[in-house]
Amino acid sequence: MGKLIRFIVKQNNPHMKTIRIFTIFFISTFLILLNSCINQGNKTTNEKSLSVNKDKIIDIPFLDKYTTRDLPVIETTNFDNYKFKDSLSREEIKILKLEKVVNGDILNIWINYRINISPNYRTIVVSYMPNDNELYTVLINYTKNYDIIDFETVAYDEIAESCMRIVSEIKKKSLEVTHINYCSENPDNPEKNTIIYIIAENGEIEASH
């Protein structure tokens, strides 16, 4: 009976109620802070993981079969000199993200060669036909994990009117892209317009002013 009375007195003691409230508040605050630290730690770990994945160097085995050409490259691909190769598969097109580059039927696209322009990025030259009358050739710069940095048309031919051509000289730090109009007033001396593009250290391509 004495123990029961002491228990009742203890429970009704206002100081004990205050202590219990303080204890509950302290424990709750501690748990909230602990959970916040755990979440912050997980966030930091995830950010580090994303950073590692972003910088990871990826190799694409099917590219090994394509020739790597030395600079400078004179690019004159046209219907008369082009050697048609096997088209890339849907999966290969997806891996190289070529749907961001080509117009029209992206299944009708081939890799011509690779170029070692810089150790900072990778370069591939592809050709594609959006229809039966046009043939485009495009230089594409990729990051080391094959995200597209930039691209530019370096050759073009059409046989609908046989008027327009594009040819280029690919150098280490620039592209000299020449547009030729054979339907000008003097077909024997066609109009030519050369645009020089600067290739930056990060692989971006910008017309020189």
Task: Provide tags for this entry.
209 residues, alpha+beta, 3 helices, 10 strands, 28% helix, 33% strand, globular, disordered N terminus
Summarize the structure.
This protein is α+β, with helices and mostly antiparallel strands and 209 residues long. The protein is 28% helix and 33% strand.
Classify the secondary structure makeup into a structural class.
alpha+beta
Low-confidence segments, given as residue ranges, are 1-12, 42-54
- Report the biggest beta sheet as strand number plus sense, adding barrel if it closes: 10 strands, mixed
Domain count: 2
Q: Kindly state the mean pLDDT as a whole number?
A: 81
Q: What general form does the structure show?
A: globular
* N-to-C span: 100 Å
What does this structure look like?
This protein has 209 residues and is an alpha+beta fold. It has 2 domains: 2-55; 61-207, no CATH class. Helices cover 28% and strands 33% of the residues. It is built from 3 helices and 10 strands. The chain has helices at residues 2-12, 14-55, 90-95; strands at residues 68-69, 73-75, 109-115, 122-131, 134-142, 148-158, 164-170, 174-181, 191-199, 205-207. Strands 1, 2, 3, 4, 5, 6, 7, 8, 9 and 10 form a 10-stranded mixed beta sheet that branches. A hairpin with a 2-residue loop joins β4 and β5 (134-142).
